[in-house]
Amino acid sequence: MEKNHTLLDDTDFAILSCLQKDGRMSFTEIADQLNVSVGTARTRLNRLLEEGVISIVGRVDPEKVGFRAYAHIAIYIRPATLKEPVAQEISSKPEVSFLASTSGDYDLEVDVMCQSNNHLVEFVNEISTIEGVYQTKTTLYFKVYKYAQPDLNLLK
Amino acid sequence: MEKNHTLLDDTDFAILSCLQKDGRMSFTEIADQLNVSVGTARTRLNRLLEEGVISIVGRVDPEKVGFRAYAHIAIYIRPATLKEPVAQEISSKPEVSFLASTSGDYDLEVDVMCQSNNHLVEFVNEISTIEGVYQTKTTLYFKVYKYAQPDLNLLK
DNA sequence: TTGTAACTCTGCATATTTTGCAGAAAAAGG
DNA sequence: CCTTTTTCTGCAAAATATGCAGAGTTACAA
């Protein structure tokens, strides 16, 4: 029998919500807030983690940790058939924090964190040598106003 | 005497690195991996959290949780003096997961998560009515290849 | 060099949390 | 109505976190 892997109930959402606020919140505290037993909180959370609905990660502040060049690179691919291999190649680079294909003018959009402008220039050069990369356009992020989790209340 | 809030040593980096892999790793396990006492691991990590060098958050998978429209909106502001108030206004919206000003053609770049294309259209309309928002350009993220933390080894 | 003040680290006892498990309750399916 | 499966609960044992006091370290000035 197939198990349902997609439907989340109110308890699940409440757990996710707790963890968005504090990823280290204990099972005990989650259980208290939701008025369920510790075992329930644990089972639910472990399932959510296992299914990849949520992942709990330490997110460093790029500035404070020493990344002085946070930038966005838009990439044109020609011929278009090379998109997948190029995406794989770029995905493997440690500087890359985000990579997606879009509906826009460019084929791939990348966010990168580099130590310095020099490092960023080197990285863009590196990208440019990948077969299929036809053109790139780099934009620096000057000031980050918000970096948050989506509000789950929007889904109710 | 001012306290140093910026310099991180190897132990700090090692702790950050552990937490990038698993945000719920216990003090005990971190201490074991670094060959320091539990107290040290705890003191260090608490300081890093307090100073905002790292924050531990549950990151939900937008798809799995019900956000079917993940998009990017580039925004032109006229007159330019309205940039700050517009940024504040946009920042307060729950759909917004990322907001930054850039060196590029547009003044602000926003990432948003919406339940549906309808919801996204409504959101863009909402943004367009803000005073100072002159033009917007929306791009859908089709496929996300990578969503990761920056590799701290780059800083060594 | 020596002394002092400010941190940081360690280890231990206590409090809290997690884990594993077995049985109760609830839901699903004949 | 009775199985079967799943989920929940509570308990005891194991693991972990916390508070604290004392031992090192470091920085700095006399």
From TrEMBL, chains A, B:
**Keywords, ordered alphabetically:** DNA-binding, Transcription, Transcription regulation
- InterPro entries, per database record: ArsR-like_HTH, AsnC-type_HTH_dom, Dimeric_a/b-barrel, Tscrpt_reg_AsnC-like, Tscrpt_reg_AsnC/Lrp_C, Tscrpt_reg_HTH_AsnC-type_CS, WH-like_DNA-bd_sf, WH_DNA-bd_sf
Q: Which GO terms describe its molecular function?
A: sequence-specific DNA binding
Task: Specify the superkingdom.
Answer: Bacteria
Q: Where is the HTH asnC-type domain?
A: 8-68
Q: Which SMART domains match?
A: HTH_ASNC (SM00344)
UniProt cross-references to Gene3D superfamilies, sorted A to Z: 3.30.70.920, Winged helix-like DNA-binding domain superfamily/Winged helix DNA-binding domain (1.10.10.10)
Mind listing the GO biological process terms from this record? regulation of DNA-templated transcription; response to amino acid
Classification via Pfam families:
AsnC_trans_reg, HTH_24
| Name listed for the protein in its UniProt record | Lrp/AsnC family transcriptional regulator
Q: Which terms in the GO cellular component ontology are assigned?
A: cytosol
